[in-house]
TrEMBL record:
It holds the Pfam family GST_N_4. The lineage of its organism: Bacteria, Pseudomonadati, Pseudomonadota, Gammaproteobacteria, Methylococcales. Residues 1-77 form the GST N-terminal domain. This is Glutathione S-transferase family protein. InterPro entries: FAX/IsoI-like, Glutathione-S-Trfase_C_sf, Glutathione_S-Trfase, Glutathione_S-Trfase_N, Metaxin_GST, Mito_Protein_Transport_Metaxin, Thioredoxin-like_fold, Thioredoxin-like_sf.
Amino acid sequence: MITLYQFPRAWNIPNPGQFCVKLETYLRMAGIEYRIAETLPLYAPLGKLPFIEDNGQKLADSRMIIRYLQQHYGDSLDGHLSAEQNAQALAWQRLLEEHLYWVCMYSRWQYGAENWQINKQAIFQGLSQPMMDIVAAIYKRRIRGQLRGHGIGRLAAADIFELGRRDVAALAAALHGKAFLLGDRPSSVDASTFGLLINLLACPVSSPVKDYALTQSALVDYCRRIQDRYFPELGEPKFGE
């Protein structure tokens, strides 16, 4: 059986790690059996979570893992998509994972002392003091460098959140009147979408982007619908807290 290595659960959502939610959601959508092992990034093959172990092989990076799963367990989610829909899915994935993700990371790791403390307790909850503070400080410095390397970390907070608001507005428009991002059936891009949105809307970290996203009923309903369908044991997400 596949072992999924990820952060401990937190905040009444599947995981405080966006890509951990993405991968576990994919596994549940695709009906692939797995077990969870809680860990931290310092024990991961590429220094990031999630990663999986399958038949003695460790694989990292959610994109590479999903490609592996499709090749070895079948592609039950995306086989119905047209070439145009596959192109749309790739474009949405890039917006989510290469842009909106970094806006959310800025909110958690750089925007306000309270946000940082909330994030630190969720991510590093498995460590005791003083190790938690030491490891968290190392990762905070590392994330700050990644944000600057991406470019978004060089902008003023107001500009970062305006860019994020535009991403959220585009997603809300795309989801209006639809059950899933590309229509009435789920596809793998919905795992990415849910992973990012549930961590934006239902985690106790505040930001102007979150405030705006909570006004978009299409996004709130989408997250509620996905969690109810694929993670019923977690109950209702706590939006706006």
